[in-house]
Amino acid sequence: MMARNQPIESFAIEEISHELQLLGWSTVSGINPSGWVPDILVTDGNGALLCIEVKVGKSSLHSNVLSVLRHAQMDIATAWPGRSVVALLTMNPISERMQSALSSTGIMFLRFDSQEEINGVTRELIRMIESGTQGNLQAAEPVQSLMNQVAFALERNEWEKAGALYEHILQDQIKIFGSDHPTVLETKYRIAELLARGGKIPEALNALQKLVNDLIKVLGPDNLNTLRARQHHAILLVQSGDLDSALQSISAILTDQERVLGVEHPDTLASRAYIANIYGAQGRLDDAVVLLEQTRADFIRTLGEDHLGILTISRNLADAYRSLGREDEAINLYQKSLTDSVRVLGEHHPSTLVSRHKLAAAYVSAGRINEAIDLYQQNLAERTRVLGEYHPDTLVSRHNLAAAYVSAGRINEAIDLYQQNLAERTRVLGEYHPDTLVSRHNLAAAYVSAGRINEAINLYQQNLADSIRVLGENHPDTLTNRHNLAYAYESVGRVDEAINLYQQSLADSIRVLGESDPGVLASRHNLAYAYESVGRVDEAINLYQQNLADSIRVLGENHPDTLTNRHNLAYAYESVGRVDEAINLYQQNLAARLLVLGEDHPDTLTGRHNLAGVYRSTGRAEEAIDLYQQNLAGTVRMLGEDNSSTIARRHSLAYAYQSAGRVNEAIALYRQTLNDCIRVLGEHHPLTMTVRNNLAMARKAH
To answer: Which helix (H) or strand (E) holds 129?
Structure first.
């Protein structure tokens, strides 16, 4: 608590609190940032948090006020998941230097000259927050107005506007303090940071490099702020895609941090974690895991289990486990991360939402779709309540839930959510914003899953044209959009057009991304599949073989993508009669999926189904039946009796019974399957008609 001028300040606090209550704001408790207890802490019920410090006196404000509020502002930004505003309301005189320093913080600052003005200033503050304007203060208080404009721009994520305002503030600060003052350097850092947030990475890199040079000159190369600016520069190199330069830079910084700060300083440990993340981005996943495990252990030993850095490193390590196909280890660590985040930060903290999201995503990969949906629904409800229906993070949560619905076969629910997201992003961001293109792509993919292919094609065509115009021919998202349009063409039998796009996409992907990039593997796979669909099987097999070899080399024997590539090659071998080679690959895949993914993972079920199918076609009927029975039991456990996949696998078992001469069992199972088809899928669904025909044939044979 800051020093008080009683009882006048108490009266001012009471008056402001009463006015806020009349304006619909309610008191919040339990948030004490940086040891500071705000005079007033209120929320509007729509996700906005307002923290007010009130100062009443005749002496000039001390710089300590600014220091406390600045640290509190940073704490609140990480502890409160919605909008947060820190405001200073004061009668005290404030020097020009203090105003200039305050202007670089984004803290709102309003003065009142008498007790009679308190209610009016409070109403003006709320009006400014709710409308995002500066009201009547601009002409009378130009410096104060500029500071508040920055606060609004930051609160609304208007990075470019905030950066332009900071440029004005910077010029004023240079006149007052000189170009080498720490306050000026802090403002330069904020400008560079805003460039990065606005996606202007090259400009941000240039600004940060100039700042680093200034910091070395003013504060020295070993100053903590210098080291942190260098670290931020290295992180931006990662975002720019220059991983080699980033690794070289952060390694040099780590050496300096170990010398200056020590091997156990949080910044030193953070740099080690950044190096591990770069290893992961380079495909050096085993190296990443080793370094992350070591760094996590050192963090826990040095700073304790509850340090916020532990949560981030734990999630990154779990991400690496998941990329290596070590699903169980990933899920265990995600679960611990979520539990720790709830305990340390609370249910509503942004870090808790991230942990819940990552655990849900791992559940999806492991085939535990219903558990994933529960977590995604929690996240969406929480973000809608705190941030509002249209906040960018709410849109991300809605997308995640929609994707889980797709995985669960709940396509119509997914389409509803995707349509909401596309409409909102188009309205807020515009038709050509990259996030709008992503939403359009997601809706198109859901249309494909629902069989609404022509609607999907229209969206994919629009996305490809917009992506070329906005992002350029060689942007990874443009490559993805071309690939998706090709897939949609293929789905409606426009195979020649699909092959042309796949060929172009593969050539561009190799040129832009390199031979070993996962996007190249995906493009090569889809071209191979298209070749296969038009009978160009030998060409398809060549591509599948190349993909499998590259996948083993880059990702490892048991990576999920390697298993997919091995399956595709096996299927192609089977289609040209190379059955022994196909069985060998199917058996390898099933063993690997059981080991890595578990008994009931969707990919394990698919692998078992395919091996059963080739057993049945080669006369090994009893072996096929055993696998089909295992698969049906697993599908019922994971998806329930009435899921379309369950019904399809029951039909496969009935057909295997029929092929093995076990006609009575086949007829009984066909009857059950037909009733389920009619009830769940409808009289005229293709599977319903197939089951009805097979039942008639079995009865006739009987």
So the answer is: helix 118-131
For the range 206-209, what are the long-range contacts, defined as Cβ-Cβ under 8 Å and sequence gap of 24 or more? Answer: 208/232, 208/233, 208/236, 209/233
CB atoms within 10 A of CB 178: 10
Alpha helices in 178-306 (DSSP H): 182-197, 201-218, 224-239, 243-260, 266-281, 285-303
pLDDT digits over 210-267, tens only? Answer: 999 999 999 999 998 899 999 999 999 988 888 899 999 999 999 999 999 999 888 8
Which domains can be identified in the chain, with CATH numbers?
8-156 (3.40.1350.10), 367-513 (1.25.40.10), 599-701 (1.25.40.10)
Long-range contacts of 113-122 (CB under 8 A, 24+ apart): 115/8, 115/11, 115/12, 115/15, 118/12, 118/15, 118/16, 118/19, 119/15, 119/19, 121/89, 122/15, 122/16, 122/19, 122/20, 122/23, 122/89
- Other C-beta atoms within 10 Å of 139: how many? 7
Sign of the dihedral defined by the CA atoms of residues 370, 372, 378, 379, in that order: negative
Task: For residue 324, report the phi and psi dihedrals to the nearest 5 degrees.
Answer: -85, 0
How far is the C-alpha of 114 from the C-alpha of 129, rounded, in Å? Answer: 22
Q: How many residues does the chain have?
A: 702
Q: Which residues, listed in sequence order, are joined to residue 110 by a DSSP beta bridge?
A: 89
- Round the CA-based radius of gyration of the chain to a whole number and report it: 30
Cα(398)–Cα(629) distance, rounded to whole angstroms?
A: 37
For residue 366, CA distances in Å to 138, 327, 605, 634 come to 57, 7, 12, 13
Residue 138 has pLDDT above 50, yes or no: no
Residue 350 to residue 333: CA distance in whole angstroms: 18
**Facing residues of 42 across strands?**
27, 50
State the virtual CA torsion across 513, 517, 521, 527 in degrees, nearest 10.
0
The whole-model pTM stands at 0.59
Q: Decide if 27 contacts 42 (C-beta within 8 A).
A: yes
The set of residues, in sequence order, having a beta carbon less than 8 Å from that of 684 and lying 6+ positions away, is none
**Distance in angstroms (rounded) separating the CA atoms of residues 600 and 568:** 20
| CB-CB contact of 403 with 417 (8 Å) | no
Q: Which two tokens stand for residue 115?
A: 């007790």
The tokens describing 558, both together, are: 């048991």
User: What b/e sequence results for 248-287 when a residue is b if at least 16 CB atoms lie within 10 Å of its CB, and e otherwise?
Assistant: ebbeebbebbeebbeeebebbbbbbbbbbbbbbeebebeb
Q: What does the alpha-carbon distance between residue 125 and residue 152 come to, in Å, rounded to a whole number?
A: 11
Q: What is the largest CA-CA distance in the chain?
A: 103
The three-class DSSP label of residue 26 is: strand
- Cα separation, 423 vs 214, in Å, equals 46
pLDDT for 85 equals 81
